[in-house]
Amino acid sequence: MYGAAGAPARSASAPVVRSLRRPPPATGVSFMNNQKQQKPTLSGQRFKTRKRDEKERFDPTQFQDCIIQGLTETGTDLEAVAKFLDASGAKLDYRRYAETLFDILVAGGMLAPGGTLADDMMRTDVCVFAAQEDLETMQAFAQVFNKLIRRYKYLEKGFEDEVKKLLLFLKGFSESERNKLAMLTGVLLANGTLNASILNSLYNENLVKEGVSAAFAVKLFKSWINEKDINAVAASLRKVSMDNRLMELFPANKQSVEHFTKYFTEAGLKELSEYVRNQQTIGARKELQKELQEQMSRGDPFKDIILYVKEEMKKNNIPEQIVIGIVWSSVMSTVEWNKKEELVAEQAIKHLKQYSPLLAAFTTQGQSELTLLLKIQEYCYDNIHFMKAFQKIVVLFYKAEVLSEEPILKWYKDAHVAKGKSVFLEQMKKFVEWLKNAEEGKSNIFNAVCFKMSVNFYIIHGPYVPPCLLFSIGYRILAVIKVVKTRTDILENHHLLPANCFRIIFFNWKFLFALFKVTITLNLVIGSNPVEICSVDSNNVQPLLGFRKMENYGPLQTFMRVLGFFLNIGNFSITHL
């Protein structure tokens, strides 16, 4: 029997012969190491690539031809276009050719660097740039992009990159094409298809310098605000930290609130102008508070601090009601408060008494005083250790002329906030009752004074004046005194006084003494730049000739000068309104 190779077949019963020779001992050197090392050759080696690793050749032209052919067949019906793009995603590689796809849908074909279309390339009229220039058409195209990206989520990043690229190519597009792209971008930003971070491309130096960025932004924000309100736009900008960068749409020499406001208001975007103005004001407030805290920590004189704050108020158009809140916050942040409730009240009173002149400089209006009261209420509520100190702080400020009666009474009646309401109203109950009684007493004093005034005046200098004229002048003064109870009333009613009436009349000394108690308070709170009156002898008639020079003074100033003379109180300071 022979095997398959022709060798004699071994019998099944034949014994198996095994070699009895022992294997050679291990030498510690492998067989491979004993082989001769091969030298490198200059000829290359061919490696066979597995089929799964073979990559398809990148051919955007062929992809473009397929898309354009399909768009040509669908025509201008955007519903049909959306269906075609949806179905083609299963056949064509959208992930690989995303840039080419969006170039075609926006510009009609693949874009060369700079934003131009190659002459030898196919193009289609079913695109954004070839459509009508109106918001309704752009909204329809936005729906096409929206459906496509919702269907193929992986296109979202590629679409954002495409829009960023298109914004950099704005100079290569016509004005009409830029307007269409701006309206489309605004709609896509409104419906959330795009993120506001794509607007960073508008800050390109060349686009800003040529004015392209600002013009594009006008169309973009118009369509965006048309879809949403300014609050939604502001929220989107805030998320990407662009709410404070809108003025960078203009060159450096035009980056001012005034220029921005004028430009966008004339373009019909008043809401955006007001938003930017508010943002700048907020930024100015933050800077003001920061500088104010630094000045306080350095211990700068109150005079310098007040001057600085008033300059900032004028420069940035910040109302006093806002400033008093900033000053209050700064004052309360300059000290580390005691954690014990029984000690913090005493510490607060001592600290605030020191800063009362600073606070008083910015409570010249009733609304400012009310704002300060609300700030105190909120602070005492938010810091539980101050809950029992509220009434003490208010009384301190009342005595220091920081707060007056009417704002306190208004706060107590209906202007307070809900925070700690029951606790603070209970604390203020007795003080408010005292204020109301004081107001009634003051009213009686005014009536008594006015009665005396109406019958006790005499001609002291000048030509004869008919009694009817004197009574007329006295009646006008009477009307003013009846309404003058607070600083606000003074500023509103002092014009009722005749400018030179005090040149020719003299009051009974009792009336003057009663009136003096009222006017001393007025003298302490009105304006700045004091004007001093020299001490004169009331028995000397010559100084009265000087009253002729008072015709250039305001009515209230004249009143204060004459009052100081007849009371003979020495150097009497008054202030300009």
From TrEMBL:
Superkingdom of origin: Eukaryota
Transcription regulation keyword on record: yes
SUPFAM superfamilies, per the entry: ARM repeat
GO biological process, one term: regulation of translational initiation
Compositionally skewed regions (Low complexity) per UniProt: 1-18
UniProt entry keywords in alphabetical sequence: Activator, Transcription, Transcription regulation, Translation regulation
SMART domains attached to this UniProt entry: eIF5C (SM00515)
InterPro entries per UniProt: ARM-type_fold, eIF5-mimic_regulator, HEAT_5MP1_2, W2_5MP1/2, W2_domain
PROSITE patterns: W2
Residue ranges occupied by any W2 domain in the UniProt entry: 278-445
UniProt cross-references to PANTHER family, sorted A to Z: BASIC LEUCINE ZIPPER AND W2 DOMAIN-CONTAINING PROTEIN, EIF5-MIMIC PROTEIN 2
Family membership: Belongs to the BZW family.
Name listed for the protein in its UniProt record: Basic leucine zipper and W2 domains 1
